[in-house]
Design brief:
alpha+beta, 9-stranded antiparallel beta sheet, two-stranded antiparallel ribbon
Length: 513
């Protein structure tokens, strides 16, 4: 019942496109509301969880996009507050490290981001006064806007560039009569190298650590059996899909619509706790999308400069320190994705039985002080596991707490691979970060604010994530003395928004608007 991208990253389809769509019409008309979805289905049907198609597609919609399509005010009000407000609500931009007061920060492209949902603020979500549930006067002007407005994101996955480009043209032609325009596009790439490793533009293996969703009695992988609970990365299915039990033993909340013939015909089930309502959110998710521009040359120049400074100041202990050594400490893994580990003879965890980087590990017993994988490294901030436990008896508690903030990543890099990392070719390249979660505040926003950008994470002082954060310092613990290097801003946000990833029945319902 869910979209295929919630189950699979479509690794067998190495190329594709991200098409950012704008509904370029005024108000809601019978012709425009959901009719464009019906036209889209003829040329790019959204893939379900079976994943049997030779090509695949996924679709997310913004709050404002669904409002323009004619989704009722009551249904719109039932979405989670962060989604209704949008990523570019002023306070949220501050918490995400993008904007402070009236200035975009250095982690954003010069001039500010290019695109967002330009989502109007829902007064019912921000006012202190009680408001009627069916009050239609609930739309205010957005506080922060971008030049490009995006109402939907269509993700196309194909086998090669030629067919992907032709598919884009077919989609554009089919949507044009409905005044749905492609206002921004990115070429997506997941081509593995000769070792079968997919790499991001800095050259590091990507997409290694993922949560493993489970739900007793539910088949969510193509194995013909239940997904067993992974002791290191297992998370309840409700962390990824609405309508299922989450890590707090609660049913992950989603939007609802008033019971109707159209809703039942689309396959929406009755809401189990809301008499007279249908469950629009079941098997759907919130999709966080951020376009992150990467400056590859600046990254490697900074790594070389850091190594050179250390070698000049400590000439007697410099043999092992070079740009790659520094970069691996920024990430927390080596170029091939193996975790840095001080108790391993090679300095990294051995590969697993499938000859892939081992992801079944904990920090406390093997590297509590960060002598292998630095405490403030990107990997350790993104998923601390049990590494923040104050004492051995707290290890499981902290691991469980960490897994309550996991996100399922579905991003891909965009733009051409740089020929020489030390020679800037001026091309636009980066990562289209995509993650799925059911609680934007507790999952994505918590990770970004409390782990990634927290300058006192793991008892550090005045240090943020060395990969995604602003210019600053990175502590590399060693014996007998620690090393501290300066890192710059290598990744800059060029656009972003929160999208609703509807289930297949929910898509059919939206098409009937």
């Amino acid at each position: 019942m869910t979209q295929g991208m919630a189950v699979s990253g479509f690794a067998s389809l190495p190329t594709g496109r991200a098409l950012f769509l704008k509904f370029d019409w005024k108000g809601v008309t019978k012709k425009k509301g959901g009719a464009w979805l019906q036209a889209l289905h003829e040329v790019a049907p959204i893939s379900d969880a079976d994943g049997r198609e030779a090509r695949s597609a996924g679709l997310g919609l913004t709050w404002e996009g669904m409002r323009k399509m004619g989704l009722s005010p009551n249904a719109l009000a039932s979405f989670d507050r962060p989604f209704k407000e949008g990523m570019f609500q002023e306070d949220r931009l501050r918490r995400l490290g993008d904007r402070r007061e009236d200035k975009w920060l250095e982690t954003v492209i010069p001039g500010g981001p290019k695109w967002s949902g330009n989502t109007p603020l829902d007064d019912a979500a921000v006012d202190d006064e009680a408001r009627a549930f069916d009050d239609e006067e609930n739309v205010a002007e957005a506080r922060i806007t971008t030049p490009i407005t995006v109402h939907a994101l269509l993700l196309l996955y194909e086998k090669d560039e030629e067919t992907a480009e032709a598919w884009c043209k077919t989609v554009g032609d089919a949507l044009a009569p409905f005044d749905v325009k492609i206002v921004h596009g990115l070429p997506l790439d997941l081509r593995p190298d000769e070792r079968g490793i997919a790499r991001e533009h800095f050259g590091f293996a990507d997409g290694i650590s993922q949560p493993a969703p489970f739900e007793p009695g539910t088949v969510i992988v193509k194995s013909g059996a239940d997904y067993p609970q992974d002791p290191w990365n297992g998370v309840p299915l409700g962390e990824v899909l609405m309508g299922h039990e989450n890590g707090h033993h609660e049913i992950a909340l989603g939007p609802v619509v008033v019971d109707s013939e159209e809703g039942r015909a689309a396959g929406l089930p009755a809401h189990p706790r809301g008499e007279g309502f249908l469950d629009l959110g079941l098997d759907g998710s919130y999709m966080v999308v951020r376009e992150l521009k990467q400056d590859v040359t600046q990254f490697w120049e900074s790594m070389h400069a850091g190594a050179e400074r250390i070698n000049q100041r400590d000439p007697h202990h410099k043999g092992h320190i070079d740009a790659e050594w520094i970069a691996s400490r920024v990430i927390g893994r080596d170029l091939n994705g193996n975790l840095l580990c001080p108790v391993s003879p090679t300095g990294v965890l051995p590969v697993d039985k499938y000859n892939q980087p081992d992801n079944d590990f904990l920090f406390y017993d093997r590297d509590r002080l960060g002598h292998g994988c630095p405490l403030g490294s990107h990997v350790r901030r993104g998923n601390p596991r049990d590494g923040l436990a104050p004492k051995p008896s707290d290890k499981q508690t902290l691991l469980d707490a960490s897994n309550n903030h996991r996100i399922l990543r579905r991003g891909r890099k965009y733009g051409p691979t740089i020929a020489d990392p030390m020679k800037d070719d001026g091309a636009d390249r980066g990562l289209l970060f995509i993650c799925l979660n059911t609680d934007i505040t507790r999952q994505f926003e918590f990770v970004q604010q409390t782990w990634m950008l927290n300058q006192n994470f793991a008892f550090l002082y005045d240090e943020a994530d060395p990969l995604l954060g602003p210019k600053g310092m990175l502590t590399i613990p060693q014996e007998p003395l620690r090393r501290i290097i300066e890192v710059d801003s290598f990744v800059k946000m060029a656009g972003g928004e929160y999208f609703f990833l509807p289930s297949m029945p929910a898509l059919r319902y939206l098409a009937s608007l």
